Task: structure prediction
Amino acid sequence: MELLRPSSADEAAAALGNGSRALAGGTELVPLLRDGLAHAETLVHIAGVVPRGVDANRIGAGTTLAELEVDVQIPQALREACTQAASPQLRSMGTIGGNLLQATRCWYWRLGFECWLHGGERCFAKDGAHREHAIFGNDHCASAHPSDPGAALVALNATLRTTKRQFPVAELYRLPTAENRNVTTLAPDELILELDVPSPEASTYLKAMDRRKWAFPIVGVAVARFAAGTRIALAGVAPIPWTLESAAALDDATPLPGTAYKVEIARALVRRALGELGDPATR
Ligand SMILES: Cc1cc2nc3c(=O)[nH]c(=O)nc-3n(C[C@H](O)[C@H](O)[C@H](O)COP(=O)(O)OP(=O)(O)OC[C@H]3O[C@@H](n4cnc5c(N)ncnc54)[C@H](O)[C@@H]3O)c2cc1C
Ligand code: SF4
Result:
């Protein structure tokens, strides 16, 4: 395997695709390569060419979660989502760009089962063990998106700038279909460069997990209040970060037998998060 060290983001993007993959902190990609779940002839090392750091509302995609969790310029929901993600060691290596693009933690997928998301015929989780799986968007694949910051950024209505375009973070994601089983809209030769994060009046991120630290979200709830209204997004409940139009939309959940408990957890966390933000409906 070859390691490229490009001297600019354009040079890095030009080297991507056709068997090459971008390498940022490597906390996700290296294990996937080791386990044969990702393949690359060339790794394009993007640290140094993708922006890093925070400047008012702009966040470089190469900024680590550890840097974000302590930066007072960052809205509270995103800081809290970063603080509660992974472990201190992982947060000091893992970048926000890589975090948004992490693959599912579904154990069938991670163990290399030829399941629907891997191009096979069936979702093994639906008939098998699935207590950590989805309650929304689970027609074909019942995986649960693991990114805490992803939900926070969707609630905050953040936008992404890539080497090709600018668009809302919510549009980075798509539910997989029979024709296209990708869960992101990023092209193989497209690099995330920067995020633009609006400043809300108030925001928060609450997370239910199996341990008090270093665990993926069972349910993560991000709420951000703007003058135009309050936005809610969830982690750990669908194959992609999930926008919830209102607390009542939890009635539309389609849980599996083993994930029904997540709906009640989500209800409690949404109520608590809205209450923290002073939502009149929760008083
Ligand atoms: C044990 C463990 C526990 C974890 N727990 C949590 C958790 O609780 N919550 C949570 O949210 N996350 C969790 N994570 C995920 C962790 O935060 C991510 O692994 C990390 O943020 C990925 O960043 P990275 O820079 O290491 O990405 P890399 O591993 O370098 O890359 C990941 C993917 O993103 C692509 N990529 C990276 N940067 C860019 C870019 N700028 N443009 C285009 N493509 C890019 C790579 O090609 C690759 O496909 C956990 C990870 C581990 C291993
Ligand atoms: S939930 Fe998705 S990733 Fe997991 S077994 Fe089903 S199809 Fe595969």
The CA atoms of residues 65 and 91 lie 5 Å apart.
